[in-house]
């Protein structure tokens, strides 16, 4: 597998301080790379920079070796057409129905599709996400968990080859968490590149190929999931312990993330 997106010496200034500092990271094509770190550590900023949504104040972000800053409009459009982004707050269009929210990416990126095919794809996706009865509802009429699912469905409806997920299972119940987890695993099984931020150790244990641990805007360690979760470095252990401490509850078997064993 090759590197899809590479960050070199990336720094981002936010309100006068560096929310990311000297970040070097490769996102492997076809793999699932997860980012874990305490609140305020720069995880969401890292995700948005890797997706090309935020330009770095210093350093470079490249797509298959080509700097994002030098990509032409056609190349950027091709990249947008093949990726999906799930924001932590859902970021649904509040003035549009759930049907319209899901239809819009198809209309923008696949103008060759007819209205009937778009309708069929949207209704099939809503049914898959348990929202078959909600196409005419506005986001404000959905629960927080339903909004999260709708946001995920919108990102997945174009059949993306890469998805960026910001806390896809945060603050939703077990049933909806299981639903989203299953859909993420389906994307992974289909060869989709996944770059995700999560506090969820169960999700991490199910889908992660690689794990990035970040703290105070700097990458503490990154590498294969099984190796990183058993890293004996006290700083790595402290950051992962803080991540687990921010979760309201978790099963004892998930403490394998902090098992302290040998790789």
Give the helix tally.
9
Which structural class do you get from the secondary structure elements? alpha/beta
Rg of Cα set: 18 Å
Secondary-structure element order, N to C: EEEHEEHEHHHEHEHEEHH
What proportion strand? Answer: 15-25%
What is the number of beta strands? 10
- How would you sum up the global shape? globular
Proportion of helical residues: 25-40%
Q: Strands of the biggest beta sheet: in what spatial order?
A: 6-7-8-3-9-10
The averaged pLDDT comes out at 88
Question: Could you give the distance between the termini?
Answer: 23 Å
Largest sheet: 6 strands, mixed
Q: Uncertain regions: pLDDT < 50 for 5+ in a row?
A: 248-255
Q: How would you sum up this structure, described in words?
A:
This protein is an alpha/beta fold. The chain is 37% helix and 24% strand. α3 crosses α4 and α3 packs parallel to α5. The two termini are 23 Å apart.
Summary?
With 263 residues, this protein is of the alpha/beta class.
List keywords for this structure.
four-stranded antiparallel sheet; 9 helices; six-stranded mixed sheet
SSE diagram, text form:
Blueprint: E1 3-14, E2 17-28, E3 32-36, H1 43-50, E4 58-63, E5 66-67, H2 73-81, E6 83-86, H3 98-109, H4 115-128, H5 144-156, E7 162-166, H6 174-189, E8 193-197, H7 201-207, E9 210-215, E10 218-224, H8 225-229, H9 234-245
Parallel strand pairs: 3-8, 3-9, 6-7, 7-8
Antiparallel strand pairs: 1-2, 1-4, 4-5, 9-10
């Amino acid at each position: 597998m090759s590197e899809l997106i590479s960050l070199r010496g990336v720094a981002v200034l936010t309100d006068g301080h560096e929310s990311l500092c000297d970040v070097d990271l490769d996102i492997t094509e076809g793999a699932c790379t997860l980012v874990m770190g305490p609140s305020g550590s720069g995880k969401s900023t890292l995700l948005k920079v890797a997706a090309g949504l935020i330009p770095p104040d210093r350093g470079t972000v490249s797509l298959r070796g080509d700097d994002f800053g030098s990509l032409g409009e056609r190349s950027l459009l091709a990249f947008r057409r093949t990726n999906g982004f799930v924001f932590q707050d859902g970021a649904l269009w509040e003035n549009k129905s759930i049907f319209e929210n899901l239809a819009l990416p198809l209309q923008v990126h696949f103008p060759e599709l007819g209205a009937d095919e778009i309708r069929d794809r949207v209704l099939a996706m809503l049914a898959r996400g348990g929202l078959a009865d909600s196409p005419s509802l506005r986001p404000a009429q959905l629960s927080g968990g339903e909004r999260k699912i709708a946001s995920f469905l919108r990102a997945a409806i174009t059949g993306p080859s890469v998805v960026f997920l910001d806390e896809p299972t945060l603050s939703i119940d077990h049933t909806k968490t299981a639903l989203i987890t299953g859909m993420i695993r389906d994307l992974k099984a289909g060869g989709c590149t996944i770059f995700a931020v999560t506090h969820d150790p169960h999700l991490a244990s199910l889908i992660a190929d690689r794990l990035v641990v970040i703290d105070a805007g700097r990458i503490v360690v990154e590498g294969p999931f099984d190796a990183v979760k058993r890293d004996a470095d006290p700083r790595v252990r402290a950051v992962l312990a803080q991540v687990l401490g921010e979760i309201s509850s978790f099963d004892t078997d998930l403490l394998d993330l902090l098992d302290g064993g040998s790789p």
